[in-house]
Amino acid sequence: MTTYETRTNGGVADDERAWWKEAVVYQIYPRSFADSDGDGFGDLPGLINRLDYVSSLGADVIWLNPIYDSPQRDNGYDISDYQSIDDEYGTMDDWEELLSEIHARDMKLVMDLVVNHTSVDHEWFQKSRRGDPEYEDYYIWREGDGDGPPNNWQSFFGGSAWTYDEEREAYYLHLYDTSQPDLNWENEAVRRDVFETIEWWLEKGIDGFRMDVINLLSKADGLPDGDPDSEWVGSEHFIDGPRITEYLDAMDEQVLSNYDVMTVGEMPQLSVEQAKSYTGTDGPLDMAFHFQHTKLDYAENQRWAIGEWDLEELKEITSRWQNGLAEEGWNAIYWENHDQPRVVSRYGDPVNYRRESAKLLGTFSLTLSGTPYIYQGQELGMTNSPWTSIADMRDVDAINHAKALLETDDYDEYTDIQDTISYRSRDNARTPMQWEPSENAGFTEGDPWIQVNPNYDEVNVGDAEDDPDSVLNYYRDLLDLRDSHDALVYGDYCDLLPDHESVYVYTRTLGTAEGTERLLVVLNFFGDEETVEVPVKFETASLLLSNYDRDDDDPTTVTLAPYEARVYELR
Question: Is residue 363 part of a domain?
Fold first, then answer.
């Protein structure tokens, strides 16, 4: 990264800087990234072979989704051994080589930390279900006879959050799949073992953690019934629970604070005020993922219903977070991840303006305040895949939901629900990385574990490398732009046209000892040409980047093509 001088006149002091603020993160879902041995599953040797590609993009950090031992009921988020590499991905020696090769390219490695729950195959759970005195309270058990759950809490994947275990003759809590029992963080021994696991990985040299659903660790005393009308029944009793701050502070004080690492928490139902407490000066984490902008296309706030989305709502959400964390805390900026469908298929136009809308959406995320995250394939403009059968799907959440719908009287066949399931399934993010316009997109020489998106012959790295107008090369320009303009990292944000229904215009401004650096971002989010008058004063302006062939250096009145993005420097 660029070395920055200490700023004055509204700039940023050295003690407010951090390498993770100035970094761009590239997220890799290893099962779908690169297969080296032809078994149809991505692996660590395949990833190592593709590191030069990630480095060439300009990324500073790799976030690697779970590669730990797992029965793969939830694609690695059901961990059976925190300190072993799953055979599917390779060996610990492969992982050691991966870490060495990442560091050799001046990049850093962030691992997934999944400690709200384990797999039922984990040794802790096996001992707990047998009533081993040392482990019987490692999970959340409630007595019962199998006739009814202890309360009405719902699993995020559908159905009751409780499953009756015949061996223990009791119910265990699982806020996600039945194979993912929740750990009992009330138990000090659980916290001790988790902290030792965190330290074990940090001692091996990794550079931080992405923490899965980390604000779910603390459950309300007595496990009271939840609001039956809420989107996630019971969530008011297990999201941001009574001891969550205590648990995370202890994790920070006892382990994390001893290392120069990056931490980002995935936090459902997170507000700006809560984010300040988690990521502020005295907070235990560096940044947090919220989900408010990922729900814009929900109909009536229902995840499995598709609705029209509104740009003014995106502006309101973005401005609330940009301004809310400007003085305390830090944003994590993203469109896509392993749980989100492809953004071009949601907020862009994958048919008529795939390239243009992919570039526009990338411009937006890489010109905001916060640490940007790019999910594998996003830099190509990858799109959702058609899912014509439940048999083709691997997402346990989508499969469960599809089966539940088909058990009602409202739907007879999968074709009746195909549009919704295909649009929302997490499998859209998990189709193989599209490397080449050849069989299986160059991902594997075998049969891929999940279907390849059939548009790989049009959307792939090989063709994009040779095309100066590709989404990939535009992303490289975006990362160069962010790296060379300090205002895009530390500058103030101001929305200039909050009420415009189609065009988003904002500035990023940073005062330095040498003067004021100010950038203007102009984005037409839809498929019609738009002309806007920009309420901004300047002496000179220069166009730094556009996803169309432009040379217009005057941003006073701008006519924008469909999905056009422009970035100006103002003086």
Answer: yes
Same domain? For 464 and 523 the reply is no
Give the tens place of pLDDT for each residue, 530-540.
999 999 999 99
CB under 8 Å to 415, separation ≥6 — which residues?
A: none
Q: Where are the alpha helices (DSSP H) in 255-387?
A: 272-279, 311-324, 343-347, 354-365
The domain of 548 spans: 491-570
The whole-model pTM stands at 0.95
Nearest Cα neighbor of 396 from 339, 452, 335, 453 is 339
CB 176 within 8 A of CB 117: yes
- From 173, 199, 214, the end of a domain falls on 173
In a domain, 276, yes or no: yes
Distances (CA, A) of 488 to 62, 429, 483, 511, 520: 21, 27, 8, 12, 10
User: Which 8-state DSSP code applies to residue 451?
Assistant: P
Q: Where are the beta strands (DSSP E) in 222-381?
A: 262-266, 287-289, 298-299, 302-306, 332-333, 371-375
Q: How far apart are CA 37 and CA 40, in angstroms?
A: 8
Annotated catalytic residue 328 = no
Return the H-helix or E-strand segment holding 73: none
Residues 403 and 467 in one domain: no
Q: Is 5 annotated in the active site?
A: no
Average pLDDT rounded to a whole number, residues 106-133: 98
77 has a pLDDT exceeding 50: yes
Say which CATH number the domain at 528 has.
2.60.40.1180
Supply the pLDDT for residue 559.
97
The per-residue pLDDT for 368 is 98
Chain centroid offset of residue 241 CA: 23
Q: Which of 339, 356, 222, 535 is nearest to 347 (CA)?
A: 356
Answer whether residue 10 is part of any domain: no
How many domains is the chain built from? 4
Using CA atoms, how far residue 27 sits from 36, 43, 217, 330, 376, in Å, is 19, 15, 24, 19, 6
Distance CA 474, CA 472 (A): 5
Same domain, 417 and 361: no
Q: Which of 35, 86, 88, 212 is catalytic?
A: 212
Q: Are residues 405 and 464 in the same domain?
A: no
pLDDT single digits (tens) 463-515 = 999 999 999 999 999 999 999 999 999 999 999 999 999 999 999 999 977 78
| 109 within 8 A of 62, measured Cβ to Cβ | yes
pLDDT at 401: 87
486 assigned to some structural domain: no
Which residue in the list 88, 266, 427, 517 is annotated as catalytic? 266
497 and 399 in a common domain: no
What is the H or E stretch that residue 84 is in?
Answer: strand 81-85
393 shares its domain with 470: no
Residues 215 and 334 in one domain: yes
The domain boundary, picked from 416, 451, 477, lies at 477
* CA–CA dist 410, 431 (Å, integer): 30
The per-residue pLDDT for range 202-249, each reduced to its tens digit, is: 999 999 999 999 999 999 999 999 999 998 999 999 999 999 999 999
Shared domain check, 457 and 314: yes
Q: How far is CA 297 from the centre of its chain?
A: 17
CATH number at residue 451: 3.20.20.80
